[in-house]
């Protein structure tokens, strides 16, 4: 077993290490540099072109369905 000074040192490390990490990772500069950048890499902002293509496809399918339904109800 170590002396009591070693135990006090270990307890100090156990208590200060999480506090230091919490302080470092919650600094606004680090948050913006690391977390926001990582978020933008993982989930890039959507571009309007694919959204427009999807909207056009929806409109085309809806028009086709309306034409088919008109044919069914007219017969």
TrEMBL record:
Biological processes, Gene Ontology terms: mitochondrial respiratory chain complex IV assembly
Any one cellular-component term (Gene Ontology): mitochondrial inner membrane
Name listed for the protein in its UniProt record: Protein PET100 homolog, mitochondrial
Annotated family: Belongs to the PET100 family.
Membrane-spanning ranges: none
GO molecular function, one term: unfolded protein binding
Domain of life: Eukaryota
Name of the encoding gene: LOC112693655
Topological category with respect to the lipid bilayer: Single-pass membrane protein
Record's keyword terms, sorted: Membrane, Mitochondrion, Transit peptide, Transmembrane, Transmembrane helix
Main localization of the protein described in the UniProt heading: membrane
Subcellular location: Membrane; Mitochondrion membrane
Species annotation: Sipha flava
